[in-house]
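Anyone? Bumping this.
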Amino acid sequence: MMDKPVNNRAWFLVLPVLIVVAFSAVIPLMTVVNYSVQDTFGNNQFFWNGLGWFQEVLESDRIHAALGRQLLFSAIILAIEIPLGIFIALNMPKRGFWASLVLVLMALPLLIPWNVVGTIWQVFGRVDIGLLGHTLAAMGFDYNYVNDPVDAWATIIVMDVWHWTSLVALLCYAGLQSIPDAYYQAARIDQASRWGVFRYIELPKMGGVLLIAVLLRFMDSFMIYTEPFVVTGGGPGNATTFLSIDLVKMAIGQFDLGPAAAFSLIYFLVILLISWVFYTVMTAQRETP
Amino acid sequence: MTRASRGSAVVMTLYLLFLLVPIYWLLNMSLKTNAEITGAFSLYPLNPTLANYRTILTDPSWYMGYVNSLIYVVMNTALSLAVALPAAYAFSRYRFLGDKHLFFWLLTNRMAPPAVFALPFFQLYSAVGLFDTHIAVALAHCLFNVPLAVWILEGFMSGVPREIDETAYIDGYSFPRFFVRIFMPLIASGIGVAAFFCFMFSWVELLLSRTLTSVNAKPIAATMTRTVSASGLDWGVLAAAGVLTILPGALVIWFVRNYIAKGFALGRV
């Protein structure tokens, strides 16, 4: 990393990326900034509104509630998917045909369009035609994700665990694969317990990928939209209205451009902050392998 | 079999069951008629029928959804790789003014919530007359796919020793000729993985592709949501459409199975 030659002509190689990303990121973002400080009476007549929208968003109870739900959701997702993913990775076959087959089957949910993921669980959880709903009802549970907030949350969490745990497991598996056999042999000679092997060999070696897994899962669960939207549409009431659902409702449903833009910018800043942590940690880890 | 490996087998079997049963249920429903789905509850289709698939494959408003999705996904993959390849090379081989900031800025775009961009994209592409075209969706998906491709490719390129570049230049290769004839074959697997991930993330995304299209470039995923709300009860066709969206990913994943983790870690494993 350190001995790379300095060459500012490399900018020419980066130029195409800059142009494409400027068109698809910078220009739209400028529009957002523009809306966030203006108000309109229609007819495309805008006037300066200063930081009014930001104040409105920061003081909005509805958005606070959505943020609260979002943080709770991300926390639950991490608390379930990370340990479960590690556990699965430890149990995956190490080599041979079975290892390949298991890898492919595990990756399957990751490749399904997000609204189809929603559809699968929407159908699966229905009491009349879904296997899950039907089975729960037959066992005497009063399960109904459309009317009951707790059931709606449970359904969405199980769906997300189904959808993304394999990602955590695959990353941890890649980390485990990089541990030389000599480490395990040394542990056997020392008569280390299974827990000792995990605690002092496997966990430290997985550290790097695990961090990536935690951050990716945090970011993606923090901006989840399609899956809960398809399953519950944000309901019952507002029980599963997360930040992105709320934002899209505001921006495209009600066309509240100003507040939605201010909301977007705050949302984006939070993401930016987390990205920065992500980047710092990832590059630091790479320079000291 | 030792006790530990039998335990592992049990854990993996349970986990794979958890993953596959909901997919099986979709497949099960797709092979039933609506009357059978709502009428009798059965774990497998009693009278298997391909009628739902026939409906989709003979009705243009359905199958054009697949064609539209495939068009913009392929356009996006080609575009992302074309711009990402030289950039990844620059990041992996040289230091230049602002390189670290630029690399970080690219990452923030991968992390940007699509919901933030939905409305401005809609206005931008309407303003330049690209609304409801495939290229609009392809460009919009560049927002997260170009950074992803740059990061993955940079990871793979950094694994190629720089001596190869230097030797080629001494042998009189020009940069474009070296890049295409020598370097690209060396990172072929990296290009394959980057292409796979661009394809995949463009294929699974719905919010932006739905916002930017109405009729002519409507993706299959959006066609499905329309059917849910409009007719509300055509479960069999809905399930069949869902199964058909799973197929492309399932087919190509075998080829990149050993690199899936590397791709998800943005080329950093």
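Late reply, but here is one note on the structure posted above: Chain A touches chain B through 99 residues (CB under 8 Å).
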